[in-house]
Amino acid sequence: MLFSLLYAWVRAPFTHYRLFHNFVRQDFTGQFAGSLGGKLWLFVTPVVNILIYSFVFSVVFRAPMPTEYEGTPFVVFMMMGYLPWFAFADAVGRASTLLLERAPLITKVMFPVQIIPAVGTLVPYMVHGIALGLFLCYLAVQGYLSVLWLWLPVVFLLQFLFTMGLVAMLSALCVFLRDVQQIVALVLTTWFFLTPIVYPVSLIPEAWQPLLILNPMHSFVQMYRELILLDSFSFSSLRVIVPVSLVTYLFGGWLFMRIRHAFGDVL
Predict the structure, then answer these.
(1) What is the DSSP letter of 66?
(2) Which range among 30-39, 160-169, 230-239 shows the weakest confidence by mean pLDDT?
(3) What SS3 state is found at 197?
C-alpha cells in the first residue's frame, strides 16, 4: 500500500504529462493575464525587493560581511539567498489555495489530482528561476564562473523536491483546516528572518548557531553561496539537504495520496 501510493505520486507528472503540461502553461500565462506589464513583472518585482533590502541592510543597518565573503558586494551576497528563498516562499505561500481554487474541477471531474502540487511548485520555480538564471549569467561575466556550478542543478532539484513535499502537505491539510492559510503566512515571515539571507551567520550568537541545522533553508542558502561565491563545496550542508528533501517529498506525497479521496466530499 505504501509503495503503491508513493509510486503513483512520483510518476503522476510523467504518466499524465499532457494534462500536467496544460496546467503548467495555463498557470504560468494566467499570472500575467490582463496585466499591462505582462512578463516584465518577472524582473521588476524581485529587482525592487532586492534594492529595498539592500538599502536597508547595507546602507541603514550596515550589516558586516563575513571574513570569507570579504570583497563580495552585499547585494550579491544577499541575492544568493534571496532568489532561492523567493521561489520557495512563493510556492509554499500559494499551497493553501491550490485545491480550493480548483474545487469545482475536483468535485465534478475525474482527474489525477496528485499533479496539482507539482504544478503549484513548478510554476513559481519557473518564474523565479528566470531571475536566478539571469543573475548567474551576470556573475559568470564578473568572473565567478566555476566547474562547481555543475552542482547547482542538483541543489536546485533538491530544493524543488523539498518545496513540493511541503506544498503537497499544506494543500491537502487546507482542505480540512482553512486556518492553514493564515498559519503559513505567519510561518513564512518568521522563517525568512530566521534564515541568514539578509544578514550573515556571524551576527547570530555562537551558542545559537548549531540550531541552524534545524533550518533546511539555511543549508540550501549556504550551498548556493559556497558554490557560487566561494568556489567551494560543503558536504556538511549536502548531508542535511539530501535526506530532508527526499523525506519531505515522499512524506508529503504519501499524505496527499492517502487522503486525496476525501477531497471531493469536503470541498
Answers:
(1) P
(2) 30-39
(3) coil
Residue 39 has what pLDDT? 64
In the predicted model, what is the mean pLDDT of residues 224-234?
90
Nearest to 84 by CA among 251, 171, 203, 196: 196
For residue 192, count other CB atoms closer than 10 A to its CB.
Answer: 17
- Confidence check: pLDDT of 37 > 70: no
Identify the band that residue 34 occupies on the pLDDT scale cut at 50, 70 and 90: low
Collapse the DSSP code of 234 into the 3-class scheme (helix H, G, I; strand E, B; otherwise coil) and give the result. Answer: coil
Q: Are 241 and 88 in contact (CB under 8 A)?
A: no
Q: How far is CA 183 from the centre of its chain?
A: 18
Answer yes or no: are the C-beta atoms of 81 and 225 closer than 8 Å: yes
Residue in the block written with cell 489525477: 112
Read off the amino acid at residue 2: L
Res. 253 pLDDT band, cuts 50 70 90: very high
Taking each helix axis as running N to C, give the angle between helix 152-176 and helix 216-225, from 0 to 180 degrees, rounded to the nearest 10.
Answer: 160
Q: Tell me how far apart the alpha carbons of residues 244 and 265 are, in angstroms, rounded to a whole number.
A: 32
Report the 10 Å Cβ neighbour count for 165: 25
Beta strand spans in the chain (E): none
Burial code of 3-36, b = ≥16 C-beta within 10 A, e = fewer? Answer: eebbeebeebbeebeeebeebbeebbeeeeeeee
Alpha-carbon dihedral 72, 55, 191, 69, rounded to 10 degrees: 10
The rounded radius of gyration (Å) of the Cα atoms in the chain is 19
pLDDT in tens, 112-154: 899 999 999 999 999 888 888 888 988 899 889 999 999 999 9
Residue pair 99/175 in contact by the 8 Å Cβ criterion = yes
Are 217 and 85 in contact, with CB atoms under 8 Å apart?
yes
- Which H or E element spans position 135? helix 115-141
* Residue 241 one-letter amino acid: I
